């Protein structure tokens, strides 16, 4: 008993404390599963934050969650399969949990609700802030909820925030920031415009504030991402380079890099402005899809191989140390062996630092799904050949880094044996035998590259930036 405190007040205080303990112990627990791109990963963190604001806590791996949120991907048929498998497996593993399926799959294929009774809640890619509210309703009323609002022609960008301390490990050195949603392009193979609606951008004042918050949390690098970030800012009279400049001007942010960008949407004036930003990282992920002109036309892409190659040479004039990474699809409908050979030769001509290779997957509702399909065995064989070239190009690129001295932002350490970090061109750099007394994490050091391997380089620290 505190001095001067009556027995009645003591009783009231103890009762209040007991009620607080009960409240804490009765918090619902949620688990989150994410498939697909960096946009999905960002959105899952925002959903997690929304649940936290409703009083939910994140379930540990050992705990049985009250709610499981599965953020789905539908870019490929394989993506669909992984999401559906996860729903069914988690239902078997956690029969009493409320299972939420959200994301691109149900938005693009709302009919999925009829064949997926294992999901208690099915939502799409709109109004994600309502998911915690729907989960509470399902927990209390034990009823199934299907809400998949359709997109119109003038939807606003849905602003959602996340708190990095909720993320696994917390205190990240690099933060992904979603600045754009939707796509207006309608490539013949792509379902995403149906899953995400038309292009819309994060308001610039919201982006500025988010960059400031990220810097205040100690994060030193920002990666701008979205569904088609090249279209950023059209509603506000802005361009993508304006978003980069906003983040570069944020005190505490040392690096800014771009996610995937459409090659026809990067004019020389924007490249010049980017070259004047010391914080900008010259890694350009220019989505290629195919190095064959005939295939690109059938895909309804808006550039030729010649135009793509000219862009890479233009970028090199402003960024001599630029790294080019890309996505290449194999087995597009109608792709002949000659077409594939042309794509293979073009990839080698550009000299990509890294290539994500994937096989074409028919998406219901797209025009390519009705074209003559390439046999699966042929797709696999071509994918294997393109991956072999990608590995060789990666090896060559990393080999060229030997002897250079580059600034490396260190992200993690492996039991004191290695420090891991990334150069501005996104080369993974390791330093063996860490001897420093302080942690290297979230520090930038100049490192001289001494060796290369198939997926990283090794070097020694020269000095701190």
Average pLDDT works out at 91
- The secondary-structure class comes to alpha/beta
Count of discrete domains: 3
Distance between the termini: 56 Å
Q: At the fourth CATH level, what is the homologous superfamily of the largest domain?
A: tm_1862 like domain
Low-pLDDT stretches are 18-25, 166-170
The CATH topology name of the largest domain reads pyruvate-formate lyase- activating enzyme
Named at the architecture level, the CATH assignment of the largest domain is Alpha-Beta Horseshoe
Which of globular, elongated, flat, extended, rod-shaped describes the shape?
globular
**CATH class category label of the largest domain:** Alpha Beta
Helical percentage:
25-40%
What percent of residues are in strands?
15-25%
Radius of gyration: 25 Å
Major beta sheet summary: 6 strands, parallel
Write the layout of secondary structure elements.
Elements: H1 7-25, E1 29-34, H2 38-53, E2 57-58, E3 67-72, H3 77-93, E4 98-103, H4 104-108, E5 121-123, H5 131-141, E6 145-147, E7 174-181, H6 192-196, E8 200-201, H7 204-216, E9 221-226, H8 240-248, E10 255-258, H9 268-275, E11 283-285, H10 293-299, H11 305-318, E12 323-330, H12 337-350, E13 354-359, H13 376-400, E14 405-414, E15 418-422, E16 428-432, E17 444-452, E18 457-464
Parallel strand pairs: 1-2, 1-3, 3-4, 4-5, 5-6, 7-9, 9-10, 11-12, 12-13, 16-18
Antiparallel strand pairs: 7-8, 14-15, 14-17, 15-16, 17-18
Helix pairs in contact: 8-9, 12-13
Give short descriptive properties of this protein.
single chain, 465 residues, alpha/beta, Rossmann fold, pyruvate-formate lyase- activating enzyme, OB fold (Dihydrolipoamide Acetyltransferase, E2P), 3 domains, six-stranded parallel beta sheet, 35% helix
